[in-house]
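Checklist before submission:
- one chain only
- standard amino acids only
- sequence pasted in full

Submission:
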Amino acid sequence: MDIRYYLSVNPLEALIASHLSPQEFGRYMATGKKNGSYERIMFIEVEGGFGSYFDWDYARERCVAHEDGRPKNSVWMSVYRALEHVELDKLMSLYMTTLDGRTLEIPRGEYQGPDESQGYFVYQEICPITPLVVSRLNPTDFCTYMTDTTNKVSVPQMVFADLKTIDFEHPENTGNIGGAYDRNIQHLRECIQDVQTQKDKPNKNVERSVTSFSYQIVNNGVYVGHGSNLVQYTMPSVAELRQKHYDWARSAMII
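Returned file contents:
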């Protein structure tokens, strides 16, 4: 059986070897061996065998089929600082798994970026830290800032998503974003105002840590990067999800 390697980025950071296909792996990780809702998981398939940080020989030795022929579900290779040791050119498709184990594949793409016309962005940092952030920086500049070691606080590499937000001028145009901002609408307003008026503060935390967020508020997509080097996973439109991935979209509460 072929071994596949999955970088889990939410809700935990880990590199895992498995015989399972991405769809099977997502279902296994979300619901376990028994049926029933458990948790969302977001992971990226990676090409194995690079560098010296991960023990690829260990994975090959341990990721073997059971005596009765059943595939090996998982061999955990790292549960700490995995993301920073994965080379960007080894990243393949990203997968979003819902609570009931349905998995959507999003192919790797080139950076395009979201619309900048509103003058600010809302980012959900996903890995290795998880603040909800308002920023006036576009994704490239935000990633460059956050991974800049000359800053007092930085991360080696990061995964984050740009989010849909409330249309404060025309709330009826906001669309379906669920209750993501119900607890902090006024604080969100204040954070937006701060980054737009305080030139020395490009970023402002709305929440210090968000361990789980809904796929329905992902806007343009998910980004993985270091410095100005970004890999983009573009979120399909609602129309495309409805036509091609209806069951997943229903499970993700997007339609």
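Reviewer check: The chain has a mean pLDDT of 91.
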